[in-house]
Amino acid sequence: MEGKVYLGVARDLENDILSGHLREGALVPSTHQVAERYGINPATAARGVSQLTARGILLKQRGIGLFVAEGARDRLMEERREAFRTGTLKALLDEAHVLGISKRDLLAMIMSS
User: Fold this and answer.
1) Closest to 4 measured CA to CA, from 52, 54, 40
2) Can you tell me the distance from the alpha carbon of 16 to that of 8, in angstroms, rounded to the nearest whole number?
3) What is the rounded average pLDDT for all residues in the chain?
4) pLDDT digit string (tens) for 79-96?
5) Distance in angstroms (rounded) separating the CA atoms of residues 72 and 56
6) Is 61 helix (H, G, I), strand (E, B) or coil?
7) Residue extents of the structural domains in the chain
8) Fold of 5-72
9) In a designed cystine with 1, which of 8, 11, 27, 30 is the match (CB 3.0 to 4.6 A)?
């Protein structure tokens, strides 16, 4: 994982939710299990998990554990699509414009990929 490790932990858990590996209502691995999985300090793992808890993607049930919140997958999908539109897609269109690639040609490139 590049960058801040805790952000990578959060992103991987998001990906597990988006892929269906972790379904809504499912028990999420404990902070210690996450730390072992990545070979990191439990405090770092907890920071990644808390990112998702603060956003309502994960719910903490005291004494029981962490669970994937209802609607988490849809919320993540919407967040990621918006980030794709405003980040990746905008950068792609900007670069295509600089290179003189028309939207029609760009679409043809995408369709042939």
Assistant:
1) 40
2) 12
3) 94
4) 999 999 999 999 999 999
5) 8
6) strand
7) 5-72, 73-112
8) Arc Repressor Mutant, subunit A (1.10.10)
9) 8
